[in-house]
TrEMBL record, chains A, B:
PROSITE patterns xref list: AA_TRNA_LIGASE_II
Phylogenetic classification of the source organism: Eukaryota, Fungi, Dikarya, Basidiomycota, Agaricomycotina
Principal place of residence: cytoplasm
Gene3D superfamilies associated with the record: Bira Bifunctional Protein, Domain 2, Nucleic acid-binding proteins
Family assignment from sequence similarity: Belongs to the class-II aminoacyl-tRNA synthetase family. Type 2 subfamily.
GO biological process, one term: aspartyl-tRNA aminoacylation
Cited HAMAP family: Asp_tRNA_synth_type2 (MF_02075)
One Gene Ontology MF term: ATP binding
Alphabetic keyword roster: Aminoacyl-tRNA synthetase, ATP-binding, Cytoplasm, Ligase, Nucleotide-binding, Protein biosynthesis
UniProt EC number: 6.1.1.12
Polar residues composition bias: residue spans: 1-11
Name of the protein in its database record: Aspartate--tRNA ligase, cytoplasmic
Organism, as annotated: Antrodiella citrinella
Biased composition (Basic and acidic residues): 20-52
């Protein structure tokens, strides 16, 4: 359009000057000429107007904002300007008017006409609304168009002015301010189609079901796990894994205050530990190794080696072909073992205090994260008693029998009856957390110490959350003669574990401990309903990737 | 002796009475009789004295102390008296006269005649001298004899009175008090011969070499590792593993203050990561899995999943048949990864500050432990500079060339040259800690970001302690197109790692990180000279037990 030239138009004066020297034209001729002149004048006026418009338009199409937006070159650490970047979480109405710089994901963008675009910018568990409006000399239409075309999940560097928002923006976690964009650059875009949007992946099942008007996309667990990197970006998952960190952090904090030290025991073992059936085999140079099913043997050996109180946080491997909501082939064990002075209830009580420390800590320090998870996975608040409920195995069985379960099927308490017991206990005692003590000897591994009076009963316990086992522990046999005897009676050849047995032959104090499944505690505290949601990159018999 | 009856002796009166009525005896006869009477009298006196002694002795042999010593029945948690037990470390002259109860190992016992025995009692890194002396009604000879016969490394429960010791007892770490034993019971004895004494295992090599008079037993590393449970009981090893705990604790503390969260990535992988040659294969149900050689891929994926700053402490597996002083097949990796804003030096500098935090923390909080280790493994104090020395790879090479190394062999810096460089740097800059930046691209893995100006150089660094590498790190490639290209150029088929590549296709911020070998840092800080000493139960190509 700018290249188009206005048409050449004769002016009204020229014919008059011409006619002054030649013979006068006829009346008709004059009339015709006047008409033509009038027409030409109008055309000229129109053309001039058009020219003006075209000039205006040409001026408008010059992109005066090219430096304020666009794709950044690949960051190879070319320069270091040391410009301060802020966190979305730090924005608030007190910073009204302040210009800030931040890197964030574009969760969604929404254009309003061609002059305005709204972005939802996200960082971990926080989000804020940002907007870009055409402004002379500052924000061009091209800039708005480019911004509106950004793919969801692009990573951008945004410079903007914090503005107090006139009303709370519900679609953002930081809803009392918005960001008026001055500059926006693309740091990293996408080279593939998103398998699902983060918004869809964050939606609660209840919301999907309750809304009849809109047909929301449901993102299934398997799709999520196949595309775990995107799934993990939801505010829900960012919060889940902050809470996972919280659990092990509180675990450590309490144990260190009680004189425990952290150990790291080898996962590669020369012999299959505990039970040969569910152990993974490893090719080890020209021989075979096995993956540790728990740090049980090593932590007991650490006690025989005088460490007195030890804990370990590490992977535990189970080659069990269990495809359930609560089994993984690799999970994180929070294990501890300690010398006892008089009675194994010293350990059991320490574990109990530890759990209450964790629950209290999560409640006090991770309120925002818990609420974020609850928005997607609604859950009644986790409850526990000041004085923890302790049942003996026998008492637990009696409760179930009184509720109608046939005693003959209660040799052991299976998963279904565990949950039933959880409901019974919740109804009767209003707690989601309790202990069962004194399990039958037959249900426990060979290293469990028998009760001093009744050899069919053992000095062992399980801890429960919302009706599911989250810890198993016991006093262990520290006497090598009794230990070898129990090994034999459970079909374990003492010779095959001589390095372990030797530790006790060289003197070991009475001791006990327990092992906690980190993902189970996380799943049950938050009621995530499937343990895979509590593992960063879960492993089960059918899943080894991503 | 007590059963022996005194001989029946006729009294002197009888012969006189007899002789009064019968014929008088001859003079000789009288003389003889007088002599016999004298003899009998002496014998009677002797017998009476003996009887008295025997009675005394019999009285002394009644063991009045049976309740004060002996073997305890096996602790099966029969009772819980809740008696307070103390730590040796808490004993001091201010507690003079106080009766205390404690459980400890008998490190050594030394009888003095049959009335006194000295014990060296040990708890973790502390020891105290205890003594038991025959005392009427309290400590019997039998009690002393029993105590003296306790095997080294027995675990005893001792009640005793704290006494300020007249002079410092050098053989104990708590040398200003001793414990006067009132009661001593055996909690756990030994059912096997000790492979070596803890005293022998604690002796410094320098002491063994410098003492010509005494032939000390040298306990070799392999013997120690075969009997690791006893070896770990030395005060030295108790201190080594407290320091190991210290390193990871300080690592965590610093990173958490910088907004990092702890993650747990799976060790079981569907594909061989990084390099197929040195990866352990695992039988995984009907298929095959691989053990992660590092959390590299997972932690980068966590960055693509928006966790921003993550760390992991976990086992790392290397199927390398390297039988050196510094290689293990399983070790603990202290890994971190973070998004960067402008330049990879942000990560490098954070890692540097982290290390200085660890060094400062160890020095301030683990002085006693460091000294304990130094007694067995003498080491010059670890030194670092306020402003860490940074060399480029090129500068490091130049230093070596200037010292006489042939430049043609410096394509890479091998172990020998690393150590040489460490000595050169120590001599020139007086530091045991420094950084080499900008490694040649060819020496680094495919995911390393090239320098923006010189593609033969990379944005990568190694950190060194006492001339050995303890950390390797870099800026990573976050662009999927460049990443795929680099994979191919290093012979890695992008398709084989699609789950990893996909993470970058869906948008990932610029990032970098590093991996630290926990055992290496521990070994080099303490100058233990062999990495096996820095691992609780070390694993190498030839060792899978204990």
């Amino acid at each position: 359009m700018a290249d188009e030239q206005p048409t050449q138009i004769p002016t009204a004066q020229d014919p008059v000057a011409e006619g002054g020297e030649e013979k006068g034209p006829s009346k008709n001729e004059l009339k015709k000429r006047a008409k033509e002149a009038e027409k030409a004048k109008k055309a000229a006026e129109k053309a001039a107007k058009q020219a003006e418009l075209d000039a205006q338009k040409a001026a408008a199409d010059v992109d005066y904002a090219t430096e304020f937006y666009g794709k950044e070159p690949l960051n190879q650490s070319q320069s270091r300007l040391r410009r301060t970047r802020v966190q979305i979480a730090s924005l608030n109405p007190n910073r009204d008017g302040e210009t800030v710089l931040l890197r964030a994901r574009v969760q969604t963008s929404r254009a309003q006409g061609n002059k305005m675009v709204f972005l939802n910018l996200r960082q971990r568990i926080d989000s804020v609304q940002a907007l870009l409006t055409v402004t002379p000399e500052k924000v061009s239409k091209q800039m708005v168009k480019w911004t509106a075309s950004l793919q969801d999940e692009s990573i951008v560097l945004v410079e903007g002015v914090v503005k107090k928002s006139p009303e709370i923006i519900k679609s953002a976690t930081v809803g009392d301010v918005e960001l008026h964009i001055i500059q926006i650059h693309l740091i990293a875009g996408l080279e593939a189609r998103l398998p699902f949007t983060v918004e869809d992946a964050t939606r609660a099942e209840t919301e999907i079901e309750s809304t009849a008007e809109v047909q929301y996309k449901r993102v299934l667990l398997d799709t999520r796990l196949n595309n775990r990197v995107v799934d993990l970006r939801t505010i829900t998952n960012q919060a889940v894994f902050k809470l996972q960190h919280g659990i092990s952090s509180l675990f450590r904090q309490y144990l260190e205050s009680q004189g425990f030290i952290e150990i790291h025991s080898p996962k590669l073992q020369g012999a299959a530990t505990e039970s040969g059936a569910s152990v993974f085999k490893v090719s080890y140079f020209k021989g075979t190794a096995f993956l540790a099913q728990s740090p049980q043997l090593a932590k007991q050996m650490a006690i025989a080696a005088d460490f007195e109180r030890v804990y370990e946080i590490g992977p535990v491997f189970r080659a069990e072909d269990s495809n359930t909501h609560r089994h993984l082939t690799e999970f994180i064990g929070l294990d501890l073992e300690m010398a006892i002075e008089e009675h194994y209830h010293e350990v059991m009580e320490l574990l109990d205090t530890l759990f209450k420390h964790i629950f209290t800590g999560l409640k006090a320090q991770y309120k925002q994260e818990t609420e974020a998870v609850n928005r997607q996975y609604p859950a009644d608040e986790f409850k526990w008693l000041e004085e923890t409920l302790r049942l003996t195995f026998k008492e637990a069985v009696d409760l179930l029998v009184a509720d109608g379960v046939d005693r003959s099927e209660l040799f052991d308490i299976n998963t279904e009856n565990e949950k039933r017991l959880g409901r019974l206990v919740k109804a009767k005692y209003d707690t989601d957390y309790f202990i069962i003590d004194k399990f039958p000897m037959e249900l426990r591994p060979f290293y469990t110490m028998p009760d001093p009076e009744d050899p069919t009963v053992s000095n062992s316990y399980d801890f429960f959350m919302r009706g599911e086992e989250i810890l198993s522990g016991a006093q262990r046999i520290h006497d090598p003669i009794l230990l070898a005897e129990k090994m034999k009676s459970k079909g374990v050849e003492p010779e095959s574990m001589s390095f372990y047995l030797d530790a006790f032959k060289l003197g070991c104090p009475p001791h006990g401990g327990g092992g906690i499944g980190l993902e189970r505690v996380l799943m049950l505290f938050l009621k995530l309903n499937n343990i895979r949601r509590a593992s960063l990159f879960p492993r089960d018999p059918k899943r080894l990737e991503p």
